[in-house]
């Protein structure tokens, strides 16, 4: 099985992130920030510190992920070719998202890009709430990964692909191999957290999968 993070990993949708971020700021009576300021903080991972300094971090991010939906996404380079390859190997592909919105929004986005036929399932934190799964840290997806394994009868190894440190921690906690994806700055942050395999796009992800023997 391949577990895909969606936002900023499978697709580039900084504007969607920004809109949800600013709406969450407005709801707690803080002024929204400029897109340039937001982009710089997102790229350098300072955005968590900004939230800590301005509001209750856990309450903010939980509200943020309830507001996060797709409007302006573009597939990351190589995504279609990657999905075609793994599906030709009869590998399950499951999107597991830290959003707390219904999976239909991601299905709609996948359909818009003509990618929905390559995806076996989409699971979000919305399902985690319904299933009353435990979240040991903010954006902990490990229980959702375990749920996906049971649901799709996956007993063997699996790979997770994501752009965020919490994606890495969730994957390792659930027993998978993690590949970090993103810009040089983003992957540098992931490497400092212990990530061994990184890629700037899905063409490089294919190379990493070959290197670890996942496609043999």
Unreliable runs, pLDDT <50, ≥5 residues?
none
Structural class: alpha/beta
CATH architecture designation of the largest domain: 3-Layer(aba) Sandwich
Strand order, sheet with most strands: 5-4-1-6-7-8
Q: Main beta sheet: strand number and arrangement?
A: 6 strands, parallel
Radius of gyration: 16 Å
Number of helices: 11
Span between termini = 14 Å
Look at the structure and give the CATH class of the largest domain: Alpha Beta
Looking at the structure, the CATH topology of the largest domain is Rossmann fold
- Sheet-strand content, in percent, reads 5-15%
Share of helix, binned: 40-55%
CATH superfamily of the largest domain: HAD superfamily/HAD-like
Whole-number tally of structural domains: 2
Would you write up a description of this structure?
The protein is α/β, with parallel strands linked by helices and 216 residues long. It has eleven helices and eight strands. Strands 5-4-1-6-7-8 form a six-stranded parallel sheet, with helices on both faces. It has a two-stranded antiparallel sheet with strand order 2-3. The mean pLDDT is 95.
């Amino acid at each position: 099985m391949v577990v895909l993070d969606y936002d900023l990993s499978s697709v580039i949708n900084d504007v969607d992130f920004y809109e949800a971020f600013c709406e969450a700021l407005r709801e707690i009576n803080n002024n929204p920030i400029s897109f340039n300021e937001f982009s710089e903080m997102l790229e350098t991972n300072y955005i968590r510190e900004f939230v800590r300094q301005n509001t209750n971090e856990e309450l903010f991010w939980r509200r943020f992920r309830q507001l996060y939906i797709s409007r302006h996404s573009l597939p990351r380079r190589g995504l279609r070719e990657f999905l075609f390859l793994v599906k030709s190997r009869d590998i399950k592909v499951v999107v597991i998202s830290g959003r707390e919105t219904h999976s239909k929004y991601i299905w709609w986005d996948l359909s818009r890009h003509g990618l929905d036929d390559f995806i076996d399932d989409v699971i979000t934190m919305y399902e985690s709430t319904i299933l009353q799964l435990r979240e040991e840290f903010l954006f902990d997806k490990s229980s959702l990964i375990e749920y996906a394994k049971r649901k799709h009868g996956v007993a063997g190894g699996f790979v997770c692909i994501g752009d965020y440190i919490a994606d890495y921690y969730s994957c390792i906690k659930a027993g998978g191999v993690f590949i970090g994806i993103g810009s040089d700055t983003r992957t540098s942050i992931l490497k400092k957290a212990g990530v061994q395999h990184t890629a700037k796009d899905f063409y490089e992800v294919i190379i990493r999968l070959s290197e670890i023997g996942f496609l043999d």
